[in-house]
Write a structure and sequence with these properties.
The protein has 324 residues and is of the alpha/beta class. The protein has a single domain, classed as 2-enoyl-CoA Hydratase, Chain A, domain 1, CATH 3.90.226.10. Helix content is 45%, strand content 16%. It has 11 helices and 12 strands. The strands form 3 sheets. It has a 7-stranded mixed sheet, with helices on both faces. Strands 8-7-12 form a 3-stranded antiparallel sheet. β2, α4 and β3 form a beta-alpha-beta unit.
């Protein structure tokens, strides 16, 4: 009896030749998808298993390189994205660049995960294409703070959780002054500048989202409709965690311009083939953090983490930074 292996297994077994051979096979699939879509395709794929896979400013240069090339050949473009999030300013900047360069706009394809700041980028597109495995995430900012412990020198905290904790403390203390002694040692751990940073980060995120939706996935919608969606995406009044998935049904219910390709759609099958080839490449090359490419060219980023007894290689980012 013959065994019919899965697509991912077949792709993984192919990964024996040189690095350039792997890149050529992957880009060939991207070229086939580009022909099916009748529009150029740029891929921005992060290795979400790598701790340094977040969106950051140098990514803009790599994207601009490909955007500039296609600006001379097309009026619209597709962007395939896989990302856990990162610097929201990168997302906003990329949206502005894409809108300035392509007069007929751009669409985003999400094979699996586009979270946080990556969700913010999606909001600025004219259309999002999803399938059964696609998900977006909440856009509440995450603040990076020092912990003061060598074992874990920094931590990522939800700005929304900080603000909500302060509000809950005020409300409960006003109802029962005896709770001051309970909350005081906890509140001492939150510096005033951290609280202010959290509040400002939330407001900035919401304003960005409103502007992106107004010209992107909710173009033509009323301010009330957009505000309702932004409140949901910001986690207002929700117990949901930052990682909570937002899938097709919810995206549609929120009123965003979404297209669904099911598992038998030839274009979705081609998207998955490309996605699996990228994932297999990451598995074989775990130091690769991102692949940014077109059917003609690949830019591959690598970060190697070297562990030392003092964990000297794991330097924390600045204390006053925010990410999504």
């Amino acid at each position: 009896m013959s065994v019919d292996n899965s697509l991912y297994f077949k792709i993984f077994q192919e990964h024996r030749p040189s690095l350039e051979d792997l890149n050529k096979k992957r880009r060939a699939v991207l070229a086939e998808l580009q022909e099916m879509l009748d529009a150029p395709v740029i891929s921005y794929m992060a290795n979400i298993s790598h701790p340094h896979s977040a969106m950051y400013q140098p990514d803009v240069d790599a994207m601009v390189n490909f955007i500039q090339y296609y600006s001379k050949k097309a009026e619209r473009i597709y962007l395939i994205i896989e990302s856990p999030g990162g610097d929201v300013n990168v997302a906003v900047k990329l949206v502005k660049i894409l809108r300035a360069v392509f007069p007929k706009g751009f669409s985003v394809i999400v094979p699996s995960v586009a979270k946080s700041a990556a969700t913010m980028l999606v909001l600025g597109a004219d259309k999002i294409v999803v399938g059964p495995s696609s998900e977006l995430g909440l856009i509440d900012p995450q603040i990076i703070v020092f912990t003061g412990t060598p074992q874990q020198p920094f931590a990522v905290i939800s700005a929304r959780f900080i603000v909500r904790f302060i509000e809950n403390a005020k409300r409960e203390i006003s109802g029962n002054l005896n709770l001051v002694n309970v909350y005081y040692p906890l509140l001492q751990q939150l510096r005033p500048d951290l609280i202010e940073m959290a509040q400002e980060a939330i407001e900035m995120s919401k304003e960005y989202a409103k502007e992106l939706l107004r010209h992107g996935l909710m173009k033509g919608a009323s301010d009330d409709e957009i505000n309702k969606v932004v409140d949901y995406l910001s986690g207002e009044g929700l117990p949901a965690l930052h990682e909570s998935p937002i899938t097709y049904d919810k995206i549609k219910d929120l009123g965003m311009n979404v297209v669904y390709w099911d598992q038998v759609n030839p274009k979705w099958i081609k998207v998955l083939e490309y996605y699996f080839r990228v994932k297999a490449f990451f598995q074989i090359n775990p130091n690769v953090t991102k692949i940014i490419e077109t059917p003609n060219e690949s830019m591959i980023q690598q970060v190697q983490i070297i562990q030392t007894p003092q964990q000297a290689s794991q330097q924390p980012p600045p204390a006053a930074s925010t990410k999504q």
